[in-house]
Every structure is written in C-alpha cells, then in structure tokens.
Specification:
This protein has 168 residues and is an alpha/beta fold. The chain has six helices and eight strands; from the N terminus they run βββαβαβαβαβαβα.
C-alpha cells in the first residue's frame, strides 16, 4: 500500500513546499515509471536509461500533460518524470498528478534553471527538479532518493535560493 502522507519540509516557518513520505513499491521492488517529454530525443533516452535499471520499469512514454495523467492513472505509476515546458506540463500537471488516488512521486525535468520555475514546481507537489543534460549518470540514484521521500533539487545555485527563502 502506498503512503500518501505529506510532512512539512521545514518545521520553523510555514512553506508550501512539502517533503513526501517514502513511497512503498510493489512487492517485487519494481518502480513503475511514466516518462512525459515532448522532445523526440530526451523522452526515449530517459526511458532507455531507466529500462537498464533492474528496479525501474517504464510503463508509459508520452508527450503531453493529458496523456501523462491518463497513463499514470491507468498504470498506477509510482513515479512520473515530466518535462516542465511540454504541452500541458508544469505546476498544474504536477498538482493533478499528485492528487491521483495512488499519489505518484513527480519529478520535473527541464533545461530551465531559473528559481521561479523550479520553486513553483516543488510548491505544486513535485519531489524533484532536475536539469536536462546535467544528471544523466546520476538519474537512477536521484530518482531512488525521491522514492525514499527526499526532496531533490539538482540545479546550480539552489542551496542559496533555499537559504534566502527561509531566512528572516
């Protein structure tokens, strides 16, 4: 059974960014994944990379937000990796995905490193924000951390932005 509980990311100051509790995976230890990216090279590359990992199984590859929501719902995907700027993507898609009854972990992936983009995605319920082209070799490990409930932001300068958000 999957855990849906959310714990505050920071106890001292209120925040809309939340940290997820670890998500339990099916008994075989398999993490089912939907890859949602409209880039004809990136989407297939992400899917191929994850298909090489013994604990990931790509159950869908789509190119827009509506299809991402439908496939994630129908396949009860544990994890959705979504391009932030594809048609129907972004924070609204993240909100719709995390509201599904099985509450998948949602990871935003983009070439955009600006703090406004990644903070909106995390505030919408995303568990990670990863920059395309910078995390390929680390991707499976970063995704496993997300599945354990960690909030992952792999963007240069992110620690400074987070410190400023929580400073008085």
């Amino acid at each position: 059974m999957r855990t849906r509980a959310l714990a505050p990311a920071h106890q001292d100051k209120p925040s809309r960014v939340r940290q997820r509790a670890p998500v339990s995976t099916p008994s075989r230890g398999e993490i089912t994944v939907v890859v949602a990216d409209d880039d004809e090279q990136v989407g297939p590359a992400l899917a191929a990379l994850l298909d090489q990992e013994p604990d990931f199984r790509v159950v869908g590859r789509v190119t827009n937000g509506d299809d991402a929501l439908a496939v994630a719902r129908d396949q009860r995907a544990a994890l959705v990796i979504t391009d932030v700027r594809m048609p129907g993507g972004g924070p609204e898609l993240v909100r719709r995905l995390v509201a599904l009854p099985h509450g998948p972990v949602v990871v935003g992936c983009s070439a955009q490193a600006d703090s406004a983009t990644w903070t909106r995605l995390l505030a919408a319920g995303g568990s990670a924000y990863l920059l395309k082209g910078r995390v390929a070799g680390e991707l499976p490990a970063l995704l496993r951390r997300c599945m354990q409930g960690e909030l992952v932001v792999a963007v240069p300068g992110a620690p400074g932005v987070v410190r400023r958000l929580f400073s008085g």
